[in-house]
Amino acid sequence: MEKEEQTAAQVKKEKQEIAMEEVKHKKRMDQQCECIEQQLHFQKALETIQEMQQTQTKSVSTKLPKLTITKFDEKFATWLLFLEQVRGQN
User: Fold this and answer.
1) Predicted confidence band at 42 (pLDDT cuts at 50, 70, 90)?
2) Distance (Å, rounded) from C-alpha 10 to C-alpha 26?
3) Alpha-carbon distance 81 to 74, whole Å?
4) Under a CB-based contact definition with an 8 Å cutoff, are residues 89 and 67 in contact?
């Protein structure tokens, strides 16, 4: 009878240990799930920021008018003509 009581007590103790291990395991799993959810949240935020940066940095191309630059021949007599050409292109 005493042996049966010891065996019953031992079985009860083992069941309690198993239940405690299951609780610990569930707690670890919940923590991991929370960590993964946080990582997902931050990853989505990072992707949103990167998309915003990409749209802001897209370059806009514009065609500029073609300029014809004449070379100054360093003669005093043609200086005014050259100056008028340069001012007229602005």
Assistant:
1) very high
2) 24
3) 12
4) yes
